[in-house]
Request: fold
Amino acid sequence: MVLESILTAHVAENKYRYVFIMGLVITLIAGVLASAIGSNNILDSSLLFITFISIPSVPLMYGIIKLEEDKTMKYKSEWNVLNEHSKALGAFMFLFFGFVVGTLALFVFVPGSVITDLFLSQIRQLENMGHSIFTGFVFESSIQNFNYIFFNNLKVLILATVFSFFFGAGAIFILAWNASIIGTAIGSYVKQGIVRAAEYSGFQKITELSQVWLTGLFMFSIHGIPEILAYFTAGLAGGVISIAVARHHYKSYKFEKVIFDAADLLLISIGLLLLAAVLEVWVTPLIF
Reply:
């Protein structure tokens, strides 16, 4: 594929800005294509949007996972392997940031009539989570809410692991979906702020607009970054095993290293998920 030849796994792990730009461009193009096709009521625009983001991202993610499986087989020290994996996780996160910023830009700057179709599924999901794009976002601090968030996210983490195991880079579909949810949530908050800023003028208006952009990004970054990093870590664990099996490395004595490495990654991902739930339930409400 063209994108695979432009941005290789080696480049992606060392130059994150290229990965971010790739994610951003893919998302913007996906929005245009999904809107154009969905406008004819042929298919659901919001689901097409996720599909068009995911498909061109698969080769890069698969290439990175293959590279990480090579490192697992190569390095003797597990610490060195995990240190190398951090490069891959960094690339995945910047790809995700590109998805989020692209979705945010579409939600804020695309006409309202188009947004309804393009983000219909995302808006419904936010409403199911107790958030409204019209009235704002509510963060509740309670053990019950912590349990709900953690175990719900744990299900997503398991799906990311399973998808990556069976489809190599299959977790990208789940992560593209989560990116679109976060981008939609931030976009709706920013739009509400833009409406409020319209009442001001001059420097006060500029201050209000700057504040709403920064607040929107920060609000969901507090818990969103460790949560998404957990999904990527779990996806990498499933992907590394998948690649090892596909390459018949299970016949090698080094396959034990792959299993051990994947187990470490899964434990790290669960720890990150716990941290994300704590931040979302007890830290974010204190600030917002």
